[in-house]
Design a protein that fits this description.
single chain, alpha+beta, 29% helix, disordered N terminus
Length: 442
């Protein structure tokens, strides 16, 4: 394995250099006719690219192009971004937040937690306990998980659920029904953990049942879900990357080559464009302990092309075919975890304990399988989005939808939306975002 020697940097010198050369951020709406240019110059440090991309994607901005350069001690990025409607970023509140979050005083807990209208993991919505679950997926599992929480008198404040390669991972934020505070009673948590483990099935090739963990702190939900799946090795799916049969043109095409002159590994990704694609790729490369030195990102709807020049944190580049194959599989999994086809159901109702359990039970009884879900609470309103498909894999027909409307009743607002699969309608500008839906309630 080839190895590149790295110079020694004193950590104190690095902090001193940051104080002397604070990050410079500019938001430019003049240079480009159809997008906003966000330029970031700062001292280079581990994980800085992921921090920047994470902030932009948390604002539900669409990155149409990007140019990354961080060779040596300096980090220089240019992002071409739009809002979800393809327009420039003109909202002064959003621009001010970008400049502060990416500037000298950015990346602090207080700065992140005070941004309004974002889901758990980006800001505080009150005291809560975070529950992380991962295990073998099956029809009705989400309904059983939410029923356990309801029976134990826990209120689901927010949640995000992903499924991939017949595995399910979810981060659920709950508080006590009576006090509306985090649950810190070890006995109650122990009972909850035991009951949740009972509903998480055992995989045929697993050595243990699904895993449960608790946390009183904050986490970035999307980042954590990627980490959970990666640790669970969901990318080793025996060739079954997804249960949905996508057209060949939508499947990611990933190549890995060596750049002999500079000692880089060059990763080329071509796939259908969608929201948060760059975040998912950079997040996975970071979790795999790779550093991105240069990158070029472009989107020619409905497809995206992304090229990364990387090295491992120890300065090594890949020589073995096995390691290259692992990188390809991990990136394929990262891209496909967030893909949803079929119908999305957006539900809005007054928040109450057991609401999620009731809705997921109705979905299960009508033969629908949840492939991805998001729950958030804004004031007294609970906003839930389910991506669903027929349990047999067939498209959901309108008869089932009408049955759902009748059973849900008038207390829950239901909006049915088809997730686009046509190449004429790029997913990145038409799929669902929590940020958009939350704005309706402010």
């Amino acid at each position: 394995m080839a190895k590149v020697c790295w110079p020694y940097f004193d950590p104190e010198y690095e902090n001193f250099s940051t104080r002397i050369n604070p990050p410079r951020v500019s938001v430019d709406n003049i240079s480009c006719r159809d997008c906003t240019l966000i330029k970031v110059d700062s001292v280079n440090k581990p994980g800085i690219l992921l921090e920047v991309v994470q902030i932009l994607t948390d604002l539900d901005l669409i990155i149409t192009k990007a140019y990354i350069s961080s060779d040596g001690g300096w980090f220089m990025d240019v992002f071409h971004v739009t809002d979800q409607q393809g327009q420039k970023i003109t909202d002064h509140k959003t621009i001010d937040y970008i400049e502060k979050a990416l500037g000298p005083n950015g990346h602090t807990k207080d700065g992140v937690k005070t941004w309004p209208g974002k889901r758990v993991g980006v800001h505080s919505i009150g005291d809560h306990t975070a529950i992380e679950l991962i295990g073998r997926d099956r029809p009705g599992l989400l309904s059983e998980i939410s029923a356990v929480l309801a029976n134990l008198h826990f209120n689901v404040v927010a949640a995000e659920v992903w499924t991939h390669n017949r595995r399910i991972a979810c981060v659920v934020y709950v508080n006590d029904k009576t006090t509306n505070h985090a649950v810190d009673d070890p006995n109650r948590l122990s009972v909850m953990e035991e009951q949740l483990k009972n509903v998480l099935p055992v995989c045929e090739d697993d050595k243990e049942v699904g895993r449960t963990s608790f946390s009183m702190g904050f986490t970035h939900v999307d980042r954590r879900l990627h980490q959970m799946f990666f640790a669970d090795r969901d990318y080793e799916g025996g060739g079954v990357t997804t249960e949905v049969d996508y057209p060949p043109s939508f499947k990611p095409k990933i190549t890995v080559e060596r750049c002999e002159d500079k000692g880089y590994l060059v990763i080329d990704v071509r796939c259908k464009d969608r929201a948060k694609l760059m975040f998912d790729i950079v997040c996975t490369l970071t979790d795999m302990q790779y550093i991105v030195f240069h990158a070029t990102i472009s989107s020619d709807a409905p497809y995206a092309s992304q090229e990364y020049y990387i090295r491992h944190v120890d300065g090594c580049t890949l020589d073995t075919e096995a390691e290259k194959d692992r990188v390809i599989k991990c990136l394929e999994a990262a891209i496909q975890r967030r893909i949803s086809e079929g119908l999305s159901l957006e539900l809005c109702a007054k928040d109450r304990v057991g609401l999620l359990s009731e809705v997921t039970r109705i979905l299960r009884e009508n033969g629908l399988t949840v492939t991805r879900a998001g729950v958030t609470t804004v004031g007294e309103q609970a906003v839930t989005v389910f991506y669903v498909r027929d349990a047999s894999g067939k498209p959901v027909d309108m008869t089932t939808i009408e049955a759902l409307r009748k059973e849900i009743g008038h207390t829950i607002k239901l909006n049915v939306k088809k997730v686009p699969v046509s190449a004429k309608a790029p997913e990145a500008k038409t799929s669902f975002f929590f940020g958009n839906l939350l704005e309706r309630f402010f």
